[in-house]
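Page 37, continued from 36.
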């Protein structure tokens, strides 16, 4: 890998930027004088967050279909040393069976030569969606405060740093 954690950085930034695009589209409509509705800052932030998460999920669908039908490896594999599964329950009673300290995996009697269980994409997908969530949450919170302060016609920078005003003198 040329840049360590590139995939994680990319999905975090994607979450942030997709929320920014969603927020911008909705705020443009919200600020249009020809339209007769005004959305609350919370609703604007919620729409931006949902837009970003939808884009993230659609991207993961794209990765899955690329791997399935074009035989790529977009959902990167992860080596795991512990698994939990109800499929391994010999009683078929839906009890979770845990296997710890996995050192090798064999397929059709041949060792794969890997130092653990090969997870084929689930961990990558969940990590991608979690960092997308984080990016969307950060921007949506920022967008909420922007829209909230815009209503008051107060520049956003003034909400971050309070102004010191001199005490008023009694006349």
């Amino acid at each position: 890998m040329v840049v360590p954690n590139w995939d994680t950085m990319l999905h975090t930034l994607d979450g942030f930027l997709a929320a920014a695009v969603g927020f911008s589209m909705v705020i443009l409509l919200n600020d249009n004088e020809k339209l007769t509705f005004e959305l609350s800052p919370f609703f604007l932030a919620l729409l931006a967050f949902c837009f970003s998460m939808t884009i993230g999920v659609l991207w993961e669908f794209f990765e899955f279909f690329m791997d399935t039908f074009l035989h790529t490896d977009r959902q990167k594999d992860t080596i795991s040393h512990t698994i939990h599964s109800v499929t391994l329950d010999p009683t078929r009673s839906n009890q979770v069976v845990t296997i710890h300290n996995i050192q090798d995996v064999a397929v059709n009697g041949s060792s794969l030569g890997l130092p653990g269980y090969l997870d084929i994409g689930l961990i990558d997908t969940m990590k991608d969606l979690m960092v997308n969530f984080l990016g969307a949450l950060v921007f949506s919170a920022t967008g909420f405060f922007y829209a909230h302060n815009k209503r008051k016609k107060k520049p956003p920078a003034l909400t971050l740093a309070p102004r010191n005003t001199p005490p008023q003198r009694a006349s």
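The beta strands are 78-80, 83-85, 97-99, 106-107, 110-111, 117-119. Flag for discussion at group meeting. The first helix runs from residue 6 to 31.
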